[in-house]
Specification:
It is built from 22 helices and 18 strands. By secondary structure, the protein is α/β, with parallel strands linked by helices. The longest helix has 18 residues.
Length: 508
Amino acid sequence: MFAKINSLGLLGLNAFAVQAETEVSKGTPCFDIVGLGDTAVKESRERIRAAFRSAGLKFPLARVIVNLAPADTKKTGSVHDLAIFAALLKATGEITDDLDRTAFIGEVSLNGDVRHVNGVLPMVLMAEKEGFDTVFVPAENAYEASVAEGITVYGVENVRDIIGHFSREAVLIPQKKYEVMPEEWFDTVDFADVKGQQTVKKAMEYAAAGGHNLLMIGPPGSGKSMLAKRLSTIMPAMTFRESVETTNIHSVCGIVSRENPLVVKRPFRAPHHTISAAGLSGGGSVPRPGEISLAHNGILFLDELPEFSRQALEILRQPLEDKQVTISRASGTVTYPCSFMLVAAMNPCPCGYFGHPTRKCICGQKQARAYINKISGPLLDRFDIQVEVAPVEYAHLSSKSKEESSADIRERVQRAREIQQERFKGTDITCNAGITSNILQEVCPVTEAGNELLKGVFEKMGLSARAYDRILKVSRTVADMEGSEMIDRPHIAKAVQFRSLDRKYWNE
């Protein structure tokens, strides 16, 4: 007796179709699984034998061979358990339905329960792409899988549910499709909580509007972390496509919320400065996403920037440019997307009070220089906007006047993003920070007066080609915020203003 049941595998974010081909024939009783499976796949034999007994079924006293095709592709994890179980049911005549357009995903426990697995959403989306119309997944994953629009999802608590469903004794009810509630989009923190710091707020507004990387330098207690945590509240709501992309990554890591499985809030990742280079970029024997990929379509916040290891910081350079990171291991090569805004905060010296108006810096010149030089020039060059965060004055702290809310700022940011969406329609570019060099001059027209200023700045400051491009991109964002098609002298001046701290601290 022969049966074939569809399943799906996963390598990184790349899901692929797997067929559990099962043959039950006469011969010495055995149960073998072939098809380049890892240890978890091989161990499914014992889980499935026990699940058969738990469901009140007799395991075939025959020669049972399961081939996970394609046989030359590595299979990892326990996601194929449910498909193998269903294949055995079909081979033994317990299931008679045509299952050519049905897929099964899930881990089977010894008592027959179907357990949660990671990476269900990318696998279900691939199932939809492969032309399947039905998928059976663990009940705990069903809500997440329902994000896929063109496929019917059934949540399975126990293997008995599979038996009851196909015997028509207890037909399963399809999972209701997931619907995003508008109140889920934004956090409860608000820019209205931050007193003063108008210049920094404006810099963050420009950063959010154009997707620009931001560096804040200031003494302890000036509000750098507080401001960074509120940046996501002024960014535009994620599109459905962005939400699915981000959810896929979080699903692979198993950190998707079971109540709200679709990631609709911009991710905000703030790893500790002790994180390793592999923790940032991703790694492991089976490559998994790192913090830069978990921040995809959101913000990666590095607080106390000089305290991060040199290796960890330098590994950021390539992903910032390419918007993706490739990890190569013996098990295969995986590419994860990582289009994020890099926001960093740092003190100007080890004690934090260099240049403070009232407190004396206790660091020597040499010590302060060594501290700030932990940030290399090439990495510093990748911050489009650099802003100094001054100590908050008492008048601002004690003021009872209300500060501008995140909702008000977000409205202006949204208008600027809509201009950019129209400008980049038909391309992969989503915001000004992503402008490629081949269209830079076309989408950043500069007036004669603006060009004169830019030329003078370029020659006086000795800017690199990258710095020139980034000043133009920030100028483009400033012009969009003011509703101007042409980039004029004031727009260039503002962009240059937010690009001068490297001259103050690094070129003294």
